[in-house]
Structure prediction request, 472 residues.
Amino acid sequence: MKTVRRAVAAAVAAGLLAACGSGGADDKAGNGASGGSSPSAGASPKPSVKAPEGFDTTKGWYASLDWLPEEQVSSRPPVEAVPKAGVVAFLQRKGERYVVEARDAVTGKLRWSSAQWQPPAPEDSEDEDVVPRLLVVNEDGREYVALWAYGQGKGEAASGAETSGEDAAGDEESKAVSFVFYPADSSGKDIAPVRTVAIPADADKSGVTVDAGGNGVAVRWLRPMHAAPDSATIDISGNRVQTYPEGKVELPPVCAGEGRDSCSSGEVAGLSPDGPVVALDTGGFGVGGVWVSRDAVPPGTNSAAPGDRVWQILGGHVIASWNPPNGVAGWGATAVMAVHDLKSGKLKTSLRCDTEAGPAYGLFKPVLSPNGRYAVAGTLAVDFERDQAHCLDDQAAAPVQLLSVGDDGIAYGYQKADSPSGHVPVAVPLDTGKAQALPKDAEVPFLSLEEAGGFELPGDGPGKQFVFHPRR
Prediction:
């Protein structure tokens, strides 16, 4: 588990996020800041970036991860866009505890900061500290910002929190996946979480997976010496946690009458408005008693071995991988990627796509545009309103990896290139799906909000800085 913990620490690059800028009364008063002062509205950021022309680089604000070790600079930082609330959420460290800091995406003004939370202890006293991950969750139209971590015990419950989960099942020596949830539209300081959840889980070195796609939170973990994972779902507003031990999930009717014993194993891949989306180990997925993937097979797939598997759940859609007519996806054959409606299972669009092609630029993260119309994931881009998808794995033999997309349908990313960095910045209008080269020294937004974009400043050595420029 030490390996898993180090991977988590690298992935979230946790630590001190110090907001910098030109004076701000809220931070000077101690309102959740962690060194430095709050940027004032409209202050011109220093330093700045060469951003695409759709962003106003004469205005904005910036923040820094000054402590970040050099070996973690390339990891995705603990900074998340919260679109409806119009804030950027940061993970801050206060000694051994952590807080969420939410700042206005355009001005940088501090909207709210959470109460301090101490995550579960490491499994082994010689291991490194457990570092929580930052997560943005949508449930029934409401946004939450969460911290979660896996470790020994349940972590320190924040003051004023309402708890759920099997709290009585674990003493201080048990292992658990622990969460704290904060309303994204909060205001003020020392905001208590509306829910504190601890799910007992004994995970092996494969670790724990948490997904916030769809309508809530799905958790999966693999126990030592087990072939299939256990699952759980969290209903934040209803204050309910449902666990699904290996092989005991509510399966969709994909195996009815087929006599296949292996169909008894599955996992919860996400949540739909009508219940959990179940993914079977043998292939096939759906929502029990509502819909099943075999009733929405995309054209150009292998009818003998469809291989239908959930890849991502984004907003109100399931993005699935299917086997092509000849071969097996991932074994020398390019998968058919299909978009299904989350509520009905209906097929919306499909195409062949190698989602992992493109330059080796950090770790891509599937994201939605702020209004939820568009999604990008690796080389795949989707316009849900038009039921249209593009794959950028073959852009003149130079694949593109996409990082963000705005409400205007302009996605940004990097294209593989014969250059010292191995990639060049591009913009991709999703009405055409064709990459357009940006100046070679331009930066592209890694976060996209309705009125602003977030950029990572280039640099060598330890530390990382971020600048946020408003859209023109």
Remarks:
- The radius of gyration is 22 Å.
- The chain has two helices and 35 strands.
